[in-house]
Specification:
Largest sheet: 7 strands, mixed
Helix content: 10-25%
Protein name: Coenzyme PQQ synthesis protein B
CATH class: Alpha Beta
Structural class: alpha/beta
Pfam family, one: Lactamase_B_2
Pathway: Cofactor biosynthesis; pyrroloquinoline quinone biosynthesis
CATH architecture: 4-Layer Sandwich
Function: May be involved in the transport of PQQ or its precursor to the periplasm.
Bound molecules: D-malate, manganese (II) ion, zinc ion
Radius of gyration: 18 Å
Number of helices: 10
Number of strands: 14
Shape: globular
Domain Metallo-beta-lactamase: 53-273
């Protein structure tokens, strides 16, 4: 399978439109060695050149399609290589792009959990609004580790597990987490026998999550924040990374420590990187620490073959 990183930034993108933090201001001024990034999404194709699955529909999806010719193969008057969309949560940065796909010919095949379908029908009723356009053909994901297939994407096999993270602020159950608010997804190509584990929003690594990470050949996980109090220290929020469902990279029990426990051959990648995170600065000591630990920081346009 081929995996294309369409957007590697967290909500807001990099630089964020209203932000003048060191990273955002430095990128605009050209004084920081860093790359601009769009909001969180990847594309997985069983075979390069064929149809694939859009994982998360970013508000930047139109820009991402323009930047990625594989998404627009031009085989018919109206055409797209997006065979289906799968949402790992119902947050703005992962769901708003559904509106941009409304011109689709025929209902959009959409894979998500019941918790996410409910949030996107009630708190933020995107799915109801879309019935006035292309409509959605919704398929249920059960976040119980069972294997499922997605029509048009054979022979890829999918498994979802419930993660401890957070539902969106507009979720009717924002403060009463339900299994399925956020999922981690394992994608296996039986031809190569190789597996990707994808979890851009990951608040806590329990035994089931670590097991899924351990079984994968590549893990592409939450790279939102370097420190738990990153937003507080900058005076940008009162909330910690943990409060909004993200495990920070540094320190005891942080993502770097967890990734260090995986087999030496596992590819380790961080995605969904917030614009405040010092790892975006390619000359920072934090970035050097990741390189030292064999951890890659995803960039838009990057591809991976598994
Ligand atoms: C998150 O991942 O915590 C959210 O997407 C943040 C946001 O976009 O508001
Ligand atoms: Mn997000
Ligand atoms: Zn910023």
């Amino acid at each position: 399978m081929r995996i294309t990183i369409l957007g590697s930034a967290a909500g807001g993108g990099f630089p964020q439109w209203n932000c003048n933090c060191r990273n955002c201001a430095g990128l605009r001024a050209g004084t920081l060695r860093a790359k601009a990034r769009t909001q969180s999404s990847i594309f997985i194709q069983p075979d390069a050149g064929g149809d694939g699955l859009l994982l998360n529909a970013s508000p930047d999806v139109l820009q991402q399609i323009k930047a990625t010719p594989a998404l627009q193969p031009g085989r018919a008057l109206r055409d797209s290589a997006i065979a289906a969309v799968l949402l790992i949560d119902g947050q703005i940065d992962h769901a708003t792009g559904l509106f941009m796909l409304r011109e689709r010919t025929g209902p959009l095949p959409l894979w998500c959990t019941d918790a996410v379908a409910q949030d996107l029908s009630e708190g933020n009723p995107i799915l109801r609004v879309l019935t006035h356009y292309c409509g959605v053909d919704r398929h249920r994901i059960r976040p119980d580790g069972s294997t499922f297939e997605i029509p048009g994407l054979a022979p890829l096999q999918f498994r979802a597990i419930a993660l401890s993270s957070k539902a969106a602020p507009y979720s009717p159950h924002r403060d009463a987490p339900e299994p399925g608010d956020n999922i981690g997804l394992s994608v296996t190509d039986p031809r190569s026998g190789r597996t990707l584990f994808y979890a851009p929003g990951l608040g806590e690594i329990d035994a089931a999550v670590f097991d899924a990470m351990h079984q994968a050949d590549a893990v592409m996980v939450d790279g939102t924040f370097w420190t738990d109090d990153e937003m507080q220290r900058l005076g940008l929020s009162r909330k910690t990374a943990r409060d909004i469902g993200h495990l920070a990279q540094s320190g005891p029990g942080g993502m770097i420590e967890w990734l260090g426990q995986l087999p030496a051959t596992t590819r380790r990648l961080l995605i969904h990187i917030n614009n405040t995170n010092p790892i975006l600065d390619e000359d920072s000591p934090e970035r050097a620490a990741l390189t030292q630990a064999g951890i890659t920081v995803c960039e838009d346009g990057m591809t991976l073959e598994l």
